[in-house]
Amino acid sequence: MSQTPPPSGTERFDAPAVIAAKRDRHALTDEQIDWVVDAYTRGVVAPEQMSALAMAILLNGMDRREIARWTNAMIASGERMDFSSLSRPTADKHSTGGVGDKITLPLAPLVAACGVAVPQLSGRGLGHTGGTLDKLESIPGWRAALSNEEMLAQLEDVGAVICAAGTGLAPADKKLYALRDVTGTVEAIPLIASSIMSKKIAEGTGALVLDVKVGSGAFMKTEENARELAETMVALGTDAGVTTVALLTDMSTPLGLTAGNALEVRESVEVLAGGGPSDVVDLTLALAREMLAAAGRTDVDPADALADGRAMDAWRRMISAQGGDPDAPLPTARETHVVTAESDGVLTTLDAFGVGVSAWRLGAGRSRPGEDVQAGAGIELHAKPGDEVRAGAPLMTLHTDTPERFERALEALEGAVRVEATASGVGGAS
Ligand code: URA
Fold it and tell me: Final residue of a domain: which of 265, 293, 321?
């Protein structure tokens, strides 16, 4: 064990001692965890100290008690919302993030149309994964920021809200998340689980369905890690009195046929109109059934609400309530570039990570915090794995306002798209 200075001044602990304890593979005590999360939020623990601790947690892990205590400390750093005055039960869903994952858009109004309120606090894009708020902001007039009172009123009236989390909700997580993003410490399961669950528990939902993504386009690349993350989050939610279930779903190839903000809104509206790609429809219905069951409504079938237009009505009311015009044309990018198949064959690979990075480089995501995203940028897919393609047929269309981005976007697709002619012959894309 290394020598660490004794506690000093008015603080109960010293950061170096807490960092050293985790560095040396000890479990942190409840008191150490409460203190370090609170002291970091107050600015007493410096960012470089918290980043050292986050790295020690990434390398040495935390046990279930530590993760639960860390989650509670992050919840205690801010306010808790309360939806108990609503006339219907609440259920929320959280996806750990992927490429083309627009499911929240059709899902929230669909579940609302079935009688369960959906208080969906969403985020912006992170790295190669898209953000729900960025997508909805491509609808003219739509605004992400609502007060707690506005959110409650819309939940009672429309039944669904998708908005930004206020600054008062788990501020420790906001600060820590930004730090992890730039210190290589995002991928720690204890930190991801506590980050997600602190916000969901503080938000006050009665039931929660977690869509834990696994594959190249997800933060969890292996099923083993995804399962561990799912089990950790389900335990945290259950212990906090939130009915919590998790699905593990594939993110090795993009979801649906679009990746990019306005492109994904368009596809979501197609789903609400009764069309859309089957993988998006199937996952939307599967998650809706889980949310309804977790909220105690096993008597309704969401497929009916999708088919008879009730989900579309809820969507239109949800968008209008936040200032958006559901009938306004969506923005489109100024320039396009079509990627075609070089040979006849079957599309065997369409890698989610490559497509996500490419869409991001086209302008659908940010390279610096606070940067504007391009509403029309992204990728439209014309084929999915398993489809037969002919030489020269379009595989995908790249969209951007700034054509100088095409070169690096195409680089991201190298190796991400494979057309195989036979079991031995390999084609490609150009
Ligand atoms: N989403 C979050 O909110 N937090 C994480 O740590 C990862 C994904």
Answer: 321
Residue 188 near ligand 1, beta carbon < 6 Å: no
Count of CA atoms in the C-beta half-sphere (13 A) of 429 = 28
Over the stretch 49-98, which tens digit does the pLDDT of each residue have? 999 999 999 999 999 999 999 999 999 999 999 999 999 999 999 999 89
Structure tokens at 190: 């204890």
Distance CA 34, CA 219 (A): 27
Start-end of H helices in 367-416? 406-412
Asked if residue 192 has its Cβ within 6 Å of ligand 1, the reply is yes
What residues of the chain score a pLDDT lower than 50?
1-6, 424-425
Looking up residue 405, the CATH number of its domain turns out to be 3.90.1170.30
Q: Are residues 339 and 226 in the same domain?
A: no
Instruction: Give me the number of domains the chain comprises.
Output: 3
Question: Which of 126, 196, 214 is the pocket-test mutation for ligand 1 (most atoms within 8 Å of CB)?
Answer: 196
Ligand 1 lined by 195 (C-beta under 6 Å): yes
